[in-house]
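ugh ok fine here u go
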Amino acid sequence: MSESPSTSAADPRRVAELAANLAAVRARLAAAESQAGRDPGAVTLIAVSKFFPASDVDALAALGVSDFGENKHQEAVVKVGQVQASGLVWHFIGQLQTNKAAAVAGYADQVDSVDRRSLVTALDKGARAAGRKVDVLIQVSLADVPTAGRGGADPAAVAELAEAIEAAEQLRLRGVMGVAPKGEDPAVAFARLVQSSRELRRVYPKAQQVSAGMSGDI
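structure:
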């Protein structure tokens, strides 16, 4: 999608632009599923709606998109309240500050970037206060060398973090997420993520999700 925050999705030109872009993405996704031997529709498309208005979310929802990703609490909490479409799944992506986790748990259906125990505690507390369950993914660091400012749990710490999530009353462990580091071969990075997923699923069979992204995606 091209960034046009001042253009309403009610404008037929904007709707046409979104529809064309979505069709292109769906075609690429279908080709990737076929190449990987996956069933059509096996991969969930998450539209990253950060920086775009609620009207774009409503337009995409009308086109059949159900999952949307936001990575800034201040923007997300306003946008979720503005969107008119119902039945959407809101993902919080990107790094999350512990002091904002409880608030995020009040509207996010899934938090894809849990990488430390303090987040588990804060999200569980917020979800309990809101009277809702929140799905979570463990963000795994895929870098050969840890980089300051980049989120992600060390692969060796995933088992301990998974145990904490499973013990949290209001959280549900759904799988792992990872972002390929800049300057590294994405295939190598994602192979590490797949390995983390396999190890996690041996203990938690329901943690089936693997969310993979590039550094420029979020």
